[in-house]
Amino acid sequence: MLDILKTDKTIRWAALAFLALALSGLVIDAWILNNLMFGLARGLAVLGLLVLWRTGLISFGHALYFGIGAYTVALLDTFAGVTDLVLRLGVAVAASAAIGFLLGFILRKYRGIFFAMLSLAFSMVLYGILVKIEALGSTDGFSVSATTIFGWKPETKFPLFCAIVATAVVAIVCVQFYLRTTLGHLTTAIRDNELRVEYLGYSVAKAIHIKYVISAALTGAAGAMLATALGQVDPDSMVNWTISGELVFITIMAGPGNVVAPFIGGIVFEFLRTYAFEWAPQAWQLIVGGALLAIIFFLPRGIWSIFEKLMARIKGSQG
Amino acid sequence: MTARTLGKAIRTAALASAVAAAASMGGAAAAKNTIKVAIVTFLTGPAAGPFGVPGKNGAELMIDAINAGGLPGHSKGFGGATLDPVFADEAGGNSKQVAEYRNLVEKQNVDAVVGYISSGSCMATAPVAEELKKLTIVTICGTPSLFEDEPRSYVFRTQGSAVGDSIAAAHYVTQFMPDVTSYTGINQNYAFGQDSWKFFKQAMEQINPKAKASSNPQFPKIFSGQYGAEISTLSLDRAELVHSSFWDGDIEAFVLQALVRGFFDDKRFAAVVGDSAVDSLGAKFPDGVLIGTRSRSGILIRRDTTDPLNVWFIKAYKERYGAYPVGPSYQYAKAVHFLKLGLDKAAAAAGGFPTQAQMIEGLKGLSFNSVDGKTAMALGGGHQAIHDVGYGFTEFDKEKGEPAATNVKFYAAECINPPEGMLAEEWVDKGMPGAKCD
Questions:
Q1: Is the ipTM of this complex over 0.90?
Q2: DSSP state, residue B186
Q3: Which of A95, B55, B273, B316 is in Cβ range 3.0-4.6 Å of B332 for a Cys bridge?
Q4: pLDDT in tens, B317-348
């Protein structure tokens, strides 16, 4: 695993960029810091979707894990008074990975639209439970109290921002490492020809199952971080199918090209929405939807393809 | 992005030093020409048409009138300043509202926030308002928890809580529907719906103990729009009266779906906050439904009001928007009016445009007459309003071709609200000691 840190270009550049981003947190406005936190948190979930997407699987139900992550934080806070960030994140990731592991036994048998719809169904089961039960906050949800880090209560948002940036970097390194293992290399192979993978002696179902659990854990982490950064959870903003759709939207917008792309996509989405909301409070959804259409038409491989083209041009001019 | 961020950082730093310089010169009461106020209401989604937009219209009408000096009997401006509104959408869930509240305060730098219809949104944003220390006037939002859970320093609410509506409804049912011996309810499964049913039932147990509550009240999800199953369940229930705190598009959907199922033929219906649907459904809305507007407003007072502000509001609203103002129109207009009165008072006391702390002092405990009668900020340490609440029965006026109400009766604010410092639940449980009813 250490090798990858030395040799992988993406990781080197990403580490530098994220370090710069963390430092910028000292000077930027509070609202920019907030939106960066929300964007990076969402980026974690999109990274989870990317892991699946590379195999040709699209989940329309990842709000399930997003919600499990967020509600784990809220319930721990409301009923047990847990405010520690590491504990919140740890339990949220464990809970979503566990549910992902169980549901994986069913979902790994399905592909394409069946996989998408079945995951949607599971996420709506959680949504239904949350809105019906008063003890779980029904549609109001819960407020989440400010986080502590190992017993220390920070005065500003900056430490939390750094923690989110650090989580993003760790996630990037882990996913990049995973994609370079044999199991990770099976990703595209499964998409291209499942039968051949089976003949090579690998279990497709098992490979997909592992992917699904990784994806669930990342999305759970995203929900936990967003709930902590925002200080509020509720089913309509965290668990509804529209949120699953939003995550798929950002995945398409970001493009599958690179493990850093989801975070760029998440941040672009947050700012796009903030400005759309400010400029057109009555039609902001239209602007966000229009932006997706424009990206699909003009950048079919997502925002990341701009970076790819830039890199190619720089290399070309050097050569 | 980086260049922009850097530019913004430099600008912020420059601004900060300018503010520091101004503060060191000791000019607290500087003149101010405009104040930027966010008006938050449902602009998209199912609550926009029946509730959000009439609310926005009410606020807009009041802001324009005060900015132009056109509000009868009032001076021009808000503490001398012109109000520059920023409209924001309340749709999309509570977490989104929290994020947007932060954007309004930290990005758009508004001086105050006025709004929030849903109890969900106001409960979610109130802690953030306290954290960011920003004056926030909640316009509607019925749950009593807003001020009972913890004291608030920066949040005000110009609308009485669901406690008043529910107790008044229990009084009205007892007085005008004496034959009712059992009742059930259909309320949205969130803070306001749960509270409305809880307090109605609790008040009925005190005021009208012979009437029995059903063991199977319905709690569908807010904005769900389809109530076939619930209507069947309610129809099978033996209870004669159905209590509902439905509002927004839900009340319209419920009434239309209940009509085709013959629900109103054998059930009596109490739509405690349903007046917006009476106006939008017109002749289709059944007669004889118990209807409330949450204050001296809307269909209950329209025919015979003589209060000058009320008369002005109805006339100006109808001229500008071509329809009668409904509950939320009054409530938004009242919140804006309240801000003006508080700012004027604070400006007079400060001898110039007030600081936020001075504004809050000016607003605290204010008693005032507005477009829907008298309101007193009597609870929650001067942050929570009480006012009269009344009910009537719907009766479509065929001659005029518009809805009207009969048997209208208002209950005094002091009759339906607990005294300061006492939890509503405890007060009703003890038999509402000290209530001043006529």
A1: no
A2: B
A3: B55
A4: 999 999 999 999 999 999 999 999 999 999 99
Interface of B with A in 211-250 (CB under 8 A): 221-222
* Angle of CA points A9, A11, A12, to nearest 5°: 65
Buried b (16+ CB within 10 A) or exposed e, B94-115: bbbbbbbbbbbbbbeebbbbbb
Q: What is the CATH number of the domain that holds A268?
A: 1.10.3470
> Scanning the structure block, which residue is given the tokens 């306290």?
B130
Q: Are strands B373-379 and B384-387 parallel, antiparallel or unpaired?
A: antiparallel
CA distance A22 to A20: 5
Where are the extended beta strands (E) located within A99-168? 142-143
CA gap A108, A212 in Å, rounded = 8
Number of domains in chain A: 1
Single-letter amino acid code for the residue at B68: A
**Using alpha carbons only, what angle is made at residue B43 by residues B38 and B49, rounded to the nearest 5 degrees?**
135
Residues of A in contact with B124 (CB under 8 A): 140-141, 143, 232, 234
For residues B20, B26, B31, B35, the Cα torsion angle rounded to the nearest 10 degrees is: 40
Q: Which amino acid is at A218?
A: L
Instruction: Check B108 against A141: CB less than 8 A apart.
Output: no
DSSP B260: H
- Helix, coil or strand: residue B30: coil
Q: Would you call B47 helix, strand, or coil by DSSP?
A: coil
The total of other beta-carbon atoms located within 10 Å of residue B1's CB is 9
Mutate to test the interface with A, among B6, B10, B95, B141 (most CBs of A within 10 A): B95
Scanning the structure block, which residue is given the tokens 């039609």? A283
Closest residue on chain B to A21 (Cα): B2
Cβ contact A11:A4 at 8 Å: yes
Contacts of A32 in chain B (CB under 8 A): 5, 8
Which distant-in-sequence residues (6+ apart) come within 8 Å of A93 by Cβ? A69, A217, A220, A221, A224
Contact flag A277-B100 (C-beta cutoff 8 Å): yes
Between chains, do A231 and B127 touch, taking CB under 8 Å as contact?
A: yes
Which residues between 126 and 165 in chain B have a beta carbon less than 8 angstroms from any beta carbon of chain A?
Answer: 127-128
How far is the C-alpha of B26 from the C-alpha of B231, rounded, in Å? 65
Closest CA to B281 of B320, B244, B254, B305: B254
Domains contained in chain B, CATH given: 31-160+307-386 (3.40.50.2300), 163-306+388-429 (3.40.50.2300)
Taking CB atoms and an 8 Å cut-off, how many pairs form between chains A and B?
A: 104
Question: Which residue range forms the structural domain that includes residue A224?
Answer: 2-318
b/e A269-283 (16+ beta carbons within 10 angstroms → b): bbbbbbebbbeebee
B256 CB within 8 Å of a chain A CB? no
E strand intervals along chain A: 142-143, 232-233
List, for chain A, all residue ranges whose pLDDT scores fall below the cut of 50. Answer: none
- Residue B189 Rama label (left phi>0; alpha psi -120 to 50; beta): beta
Let me know: does A93 contact A217? Beta carbons within 8 Å. yes
C-alpha span between A125 and A130 (Å, rounded): 9
Inter-chain contact A132–B221, Cβ cutoff 8 Å? yes
Q: Which of A190-199, B6-15, B88-97, B368-377 has the lowest mean pLDDT?
A: B6-15
pLDDT score for B27 = 38
